[in-house]
Amino acid sequence: MLPQLVALSLSIAVLGAVWAFLALGPLGAYVLVWAGFIAWGCFFHTGGDQKALIKTICGNVYGVIIGWIALLLVVKIGGGVLIVNAIIVGVTVFFLVIVAKIDQLSAVPANVYGYAAIVAYSLHEKGVAAATPDMVGTGPLENLTSPSINNPLVKLIISMVIGAIAGYISGQLAGALTKKA
């Protein structure tokens, strides 16, 4: 039997190494290691139990979707006009919080983490614009509507759901390591 903190530290260390190996290696084209860790931390911040898993996944996914909508609006109608883009952010962020009466979306930080993750990834991951209008560019902003893993909506949702599940598994493993035989 291990002390609770040691068991949790050990389970997160081992599973974190597995996640890093997978996300930076064989799954590297499909997931973002840092987004998974954000969701993992969110799981524990939200309570570290089964209810937290639901709130983390729902909140992160909801935030990613609202952030994706904001990005679409910025790209399609914002046109680089600062005040228009600021209004788009303000309106979409309103929807991150107003849903807090819904139990699954009541962990507002989870919603914000999803929103922030997709916006950060999409604005800071450089891409190459399409050479012709019928082509798709290589960056997240160029792939907002692409039906592929290159769409930041898809990549962030997959990464954050896996991260939340990894958090849950690490909590369960830590619980097993603290129980008497």
Largest sheet: none
Q: Kindly estimate the percentage of residues that lie in beta strands according to DSSP.
A: under 5%
Determine the N-to-C terminus distance.
7 Å
Q: How would you sum up the global shape?
A: globular
- What level of helicity do the residues show? 55-70%
Describe the protein.
- 38% of the residues are buried.
- The chain has 6 helices and no strands.
- The mean pLDDT is 93.
- The protein is globular and about 60 Å long.
- With 181 residues, the protein is mostly helical.
Blueprint of the fold:
Layout: H1 4-24, H2 33-45, H3 50-78, H4 82-98, H5 108-124, H6 152-178
Helix pairs in contact: 1-6, 2-3, 2-5, 2-6, 3-4, 3-5, 3-6, 5-6
Defining key terms:
181 residues, mainly alpha, single chain
Give a quick precis of the structure:
The chain is an all-alpha fold and 181 residues long.
